[in-house]
Design a protein that fits this description.
Elements: E1 2-4, H1 6-19, H2 24-39, H3 47-59, E2 69-74, E3 77-81, H4 87-105, E4 107-115, H5 122-130, E5 134-139, E6 145-146, E7 153-155, E8 160-164, E9 173-177, H6 184-193, E10 202-203, E11 209-210, H7 213-218, E12 220-221, H8 227-243, E13 264-271, H9 280-293, E14 309-311, H10 313-322
Parallel strand pairs: 3-4
Antiparallel strand pairs: 1-14, 2-3, 4-13, 5-8, 5-13, 6-7, 8-9, 10-11, 10-12
Family: Belongs to the LDH2/MDH2 oxidoreductase family.
Protein name: Ldh family oxidoreductase
InterPro entries: Mal/L-sulf/L-lact_DH-like_ah, Mal/L-sulf/L-lact_DH-like_NADP, Mal/L-sulfo/L-lacto_DH-like_sf, Malate/L-lactate_DH-like
Length: about 325
């Protein structure tokens, strides 16, 4: 890893998005979300994953000229049709209104369909927590996870993310995890590095357990904790596909192949803690310190300084190439 100024990374990412066919607003949304993931230590779903977005823009899986459509059938509900674009674009367009409605009503729900898979799901709830709100998000993509060892693919990794605000001198609490034993990007990374997978992560195309990442790519991931992980995946599926009116994971297109937008879905719930407990950030901060003293790792606390964001130089080289040199 090398460190780069945040502003330089955002500018490079925007140029690459524009060069690959994104509209100006989409390019800005993707660039900022990708750099935010790198700052949070989520390199695999940061600028490295932006490269997947860029190829998808070129090959038609993301509609670069997408114009998200927003309506509001109830005061505390906002709906977005992403028009084949990216979830970050629609979220950015709705964010200010979503946050205001959460403050006004105590909670507000955003449902989005017809979008590319959401990438770092923690980005959406982290934005809310930085505005003093509690955030909960769920998203789906194409089916690549079996419901149990030996079973067929039924769900995507179906991640769930949660964030809560802390005092201004601390980054928010952010929990972002898949319902699978690992994220699919970790399988791809292991295959590229020629590394074996831990047991229990995946199975091959014949539904046999495997530690070979190449076999896992054409096979299936496995849920964490057996049926417990599968139950969480089902819950996310009901929210991200059922509630949004979007495609079920069995019907969603692959985010790395094909020439049509995959049509994933995402839900984001925003809650105003101050209306329930005015001293919420301070109380939570003190409780997290108590838990940390007992050995708890507090998620979300590791963020790079804006002027020194770590990125793999090979990723920078590829973004520079895709941006046109």
């Amino acid at each position: 890893m090398q460190h780069y100024p945040q502003s330089d990374l955002i500018a490079l990412a925007e140029r690459a998005c524009l060069a690959c066919g994104a509209g100006a607003d989409m390019a800005q949304s993707l660039a900022r979300a990708s750099v935010s993931a790198c700052r949070a230590g989520r390199q695999e779903v940061g600028l490295a994953h932006l490269i997947d977005h860029l190829h998808s823009l070129r090959e038609g899986r993301i509609r670069g000229a997408a114009q998200p459509r927003i309506d509001s059938p109830a005061p505390a509900l906002m709906r977005i049709d992403a028009d084949g674009g990216v979830a970050q674009h629609g979220f950015d367009l709705a964010f200010a209104e979503l946050a205001q409605r959460a403050q006004d009503f105590g909670l507000a729900l955003l449902v989005q369909r017809n979008c590319y898979p959401a990438g770092e799901l923690g980005y959406f709830v982290r934005r809310l927590a930085e505005s003093g709100l509690i955030g909960l998000a769920a998203g789906n993509a194409h089916a690549l996870m079996a419901v149990a060892a030996g079973g067929g693919k039924a769900f995507s990794t179906n991640p769930l993310a949660f964030a809560a605000p802390l005092p201004a001198d601390r980054p928010p609490l952010v929990i972002d995890q898949a319902s699978s034993a690992t994220a699919f990007v970790n399988i791809l990374r292991a295959a590229a590095a020629g590394q074996n997978l831990p047991e229990g992560w995946a199975q091959d195309v014949h539904r046999r357990p495997t530690t070979d990442p190449t076999a896992a790519i054409t096979g299936a991931l496995l849920p964490f904790g057996g049926y417990k992980g599968a139950n969480i995946a089902l819950m996310v599926e009901v929210l991200a596909a059922g509630l949004t009116g979007g495609r079920w994971s069995l019907d969603t297109g692959h985010f790395l192949t094909g020439h049509e937008p995959p049509g994933s879905g995402m839900v984001v719930l925003a809650l105003s803690p101050g209306l329930c407990a005015p001293d919420f950030p301070g109380r939570l901060s003190a409780q997290l310190d108590r838990l940390a003293a007992l050995g708890l790792h507090v998620p979300g606390q590791r963020q790079a300084r804006p002027e020194a964001v770590p990125v793999d130089p090979k990723v920078i080289d590829e973004l520079t190439r895709l941006a046109g040199g």
